[in-house]
Amino acid sequence: MSTVIYPSPIFGPIHSRRLGVSLGINLMPADGKICSFDCIYCECGFNAERRPTLPRPTRAEVSNALEQRLKQMQAEGTAPDVLTFAGNGEPTLHPDFADIIGDTIGLRDSYFPTARISVLTNSTAAHRPDIHDALMRVDNNIMKLDTVCPTYIALANRPAGRYHVDRVIETMRSFGSHAVIQTMFMKGSYNGIDMDNTTERYVAPWLEKVKYIAPREVMIYTIDRETPDHDLRKATPAELNAIRDRVIAAGIPCTAAY
What we know:
Blueprint: E1 10-16, E2 20-26, H1 59-76, E3 82-86, H2 97-111, E4 116-121, H3 129-137, E5 140-144, H4 150-156, H5 165-174, E6 179-184, E7 186-190, E8 193-194, H6 200-213, E9 217-221, E10 232-234, H7 237-249, E11 254-257
Parallel strand pairs: 2-3, 3-4, 4-5, 5-6, 6-9, 9-11
Antiparallel strand pairs: 1-2, 7-8, 7-10
Helix pairs in contact: 1-2, 2-3
């Protein structure tokens, strides 16, 4: 298994299939993973196999490292399209997440004011007022919704603690047009169980909830890097395009990344 653990607190820039030239901001430890999901397709591996020994970076460490990297990129004439909160787990779990967002907005405005700020989140903490307010301040509030089937979520995303998909959907809807929905479509199996969520059984109810949430945009994608479980497979371009076209027909912009 050759899954990826990202440097912390800053990594890249890298080229993102969905976002362009992305400078990564990783609020989790540099030697492990902390996440409220334990997705079977996560490029960072399973939580139990990636237990960190280092602490999370502090707010000051994040701000200082980000400013130094932005200064360097400015001197090199390299402009990021986006500053992306991602990395080794769920970024909103950092205790200073809201303040770090404020710091990042200030630094972005000083060095690369046209760059967007994105957060990739599984939405498990988005109901908290401080997290909700912080996510309302970023340009791309990208919220995960792989399916609306609780059984599939339990198998594929493996959330920690109680996870009620209907409550999460209501939280997503509360962001209005400030939400961007991202969904992983995949095929193959896990522990002998079929994990194909490109079928009508999963797509039709998912699409109805997407229409109910009414996000600004939907991003659908499939496996790109090695996964901790090797029986999973990519969805095909034809399958992704068909789902994308149904979202667009519903009046919501949608992109597909293969």
